[in-house]
Amino acid sequence: MQPRDLSDHVAYEAGRGIEEVARELGREPSEFVKLASNENPHGPSPAAAVAIRETASSASSYPKAAHADLTAAIAERWDVTDEQVWLANGGDGAIDYLSRAVLEPGDSTLVPSPGFAYYGMSARFHHGEVREYALEKDDDFEQSAETVLEGYDGDRVVYLTSPHNPSGSTIPLEEIAEIAERTDEETLVVVDEAYGEFADRESAVALIEGRDGFDARDDVAVLRTFSKAYGLAGVRLGYAVVPDEWADAYARVNTPFAASELACRAGLAAIDDDEHVQRTVETARESREYMRDNLETHVWESEGNFVLVDVGDAERVAEEAQERGVIVRDCTSFGLPGCIRITCGTEDETERAVETVNEVLADLDVDPDRNDTEVPDA
């Protein structure tokens, strides 16, 4: 007995954790700073942490009431109906629900390259095909309707990421609306706004609801998460906002109790903790600016809680930075072997990362334009 043929599937490569790296190198976890996974440097919302502790004693119960309460709170935040909010076990869970609701075997999904691997993974899990459109490094990963539509060929789902991971670029609502207008009636445009709180842009929920001068659309969905600005990556909580016409689909595609009791109670507390979100967003903005001003190589403009950095040889630079106690993301798995991604940390973490990466670049004599390194003679 063997599983079905999974040879076309790719494994998701997560950023390396402090404990994992410390064990591998035989060192203490306290020696390291992790800036590889776009996590919140301030931790979870304090209100959410309290809610998790208080909810622990009721973890034996299914989260029916909490699920309904959080759905209502999110719906109120976006001024949509409860039925338009699809709670999920992380943003990737919401992606799976959309795949179940939309894809028939053989349908194609159009995804950005570079981009979040799980878009394509979910499509393949649901017996769909995957096609790509390119966001070009030489164009600073610019996102536009023409860029996407040049790769479009009647695909059932089109993914947009705003801000884009790993570059941090965004796409204006006008461009998203044009994509939705110029694609087939049965094409769903999914806008992943996992990092939306960090960007100075309106949410694509406006396109679903027909706000800000746009016509209401039934072919756009928006993804959001509590993992980033709210600091709840460890409890796995995300959601999709979908058109009102989709009201009946959720109950037919979601897993029973799609988010846990702990996750729902944490989300309910976090969604009202505006102070924590504002502090997190301000930290990210200051960190992005500091890295752009002080890293001695090219750093792309970003509206996420991270920056993409041109280092010539990502694997070697990331490994050497890790040896020196700073864990960053080698972007080879994104198809960018010359780039690393650095999460926005606290002031001390950001300064340490900049100092370390600059030292590594100097010691390895990196020339990003050559996309390789030279090691000086000992």
UniProtKB/TrEMBL annotation:
Domain spans labelled Aminotransferase class I/classII large: 31-356
InterPro entries: Aminotrans_II_pyridoxalP_BS (IPR001917), Aminotransferase_I/II_large (IPR004839), HisP_aminotrans (IPR005861), HistidinolP_aminotransfase (IPR050106), PyrdxlP-dep_Trfase (IPR015424), PyrdxlP-dep_Trfase_major (IPR015421), PyrdxlP-dep_Trfase_small (IPR015422)
GO molecular function: histidinol-phosphate transaminase activity; pyridoxal phosphate binding
Xref: Gene3D superfamilies: Aspartate Aminotransferase, domain 1, Type I PLP-dependent aspartate aminotransferase-like (Major domain)
Cofactor list: pyridoxal 5'-phosphate
Keyword line: Amino-acid biosynthesis, Aminotransferase, Histidine biosynthesis, Pyridoxal phosphate, Transferase
Modified residues (N6-(pyridoxal phosphate)lysine): 228
EC number: 2.6.1.9
Protein family according to the UniProt entry: Belongs to the class-II pyridoxal-phosphate-dependent aminotransferase family. Histidinol-phosphate aminotransferase subfamily.
UniProt protein name: Histidinol-phosphate aminotransferase
Species, as recorded: Natronobacterium texcoconense
Native organism taxonomy: Archaea, Methanobacteriati, Methanobacteriota, Stenosarchaea group, Halobacteria
Gene: hisC
